[in-house]
Each structure stands twice: as structure tokens, then as C-alpha cells.
């Protein structure tokens, strides 16, 4: 499950928030659907090489936002997409494809995730599209 999740320790965004954002995005675009189980706190922490409390906080934030639910026997389960306005509708496949293309181009050019996000924030600000704060 960690294939889409990574932690950038040089990023000023706390690791728990990086995890929350990435999982929230995976849920928003339908990679993780309602009913899917998230990895256990311990296994994800071990895979990412971080403290279990960091993953637990990310999971708690997801639960507070209504996208996941902790169940005694089933672990943490996706219950729905992030609340609007952050949800990407299924009809926005072209936008998702463009974002995926941007990510691939950045990786090919050796641009790190934090730098790519900063570039995108800057371009949003230059083009006057509201706030430059990016949230999944």
C-alpha cells in the first residue's frame, strides 16, 4: 500500500500531514475506495521508517475529516472521499491525467516533490487563481 506514499524529511510539512494529504488524495481520485482497509499503523510506520505515533496522528486526522473510520476488527477503513471542495470528480479525468503527466515530467527532470509543489503554488499565485495554498 505504501507504493503511493512517501515522506520527505526535508519538507517543512510535518510527516503526519504529508501522510494525511497523500492518503486523502488517493481517496479523492478513487485509488482507495470506501471499504478499502488502510495498512496498520505499525506496518505503515515500519515501511516508511517513521514512528508509529506519526502514522496514528495522520489516521486520526483522516478520521476527523470523515474519510476513514477505525473499526475494532477491521482496522482503519475508508468510508468516503474528502469533503468538497477538495474532491476531484470522476469527470475530471483529463485534469488527473495532466497532473500525473506533470509529476512524471518533474521526476524525469529530477525535481523533488517539495519543489514541484512550490512551483505549482507559485504558478497558481501568478495566474490569480485564488489562494496558493494547496490541500488535497
Structure, explained:
It is a single chain. The chain is mainly α and about 140 residues long. It contains 5 helices and 2 strands. The protein has helices at about 15-30, 40-50, 50-65, 95-110, 115-125; strands at about 70, 75-80. A two-stranded antiparallel ribbon has the order 1-2. Strand 1 and strand 2 form a beta hairpin. Helix 1 (about 15-30) packs across helix 3. The longest helix has 16 residues, at about 95-110. The chain is globular, with a radius of gyration of 15 Å. The model is unreliable at about 130-135 (pLDDT under 50).
Beta-strand content estimate: 5-15%
Helix fraction by DSSP (H/I, runs of at least 4): 40-55%
The outline comes out as globular
Report how far the terminal alpha carbons are from each other: 19 Å
Q: Average pLDDT across residues?
A: 81
Counting DSSP H or I runs of 4 or more residues, the number of helices is 5
Low-confidence spans: 130-136
Give the C-alpha Rg.
15 Å
Structural class: mainly alpha
The H/E string reads HHHEEHH
Q: Report the sheet with the most strands, covering strand number, pairing sense and barrel closure.
A: 2 strands, antiparallel
What is the strand arrangement across the widest sheet?
1-2
- Tell me the total number of β-strands: 2
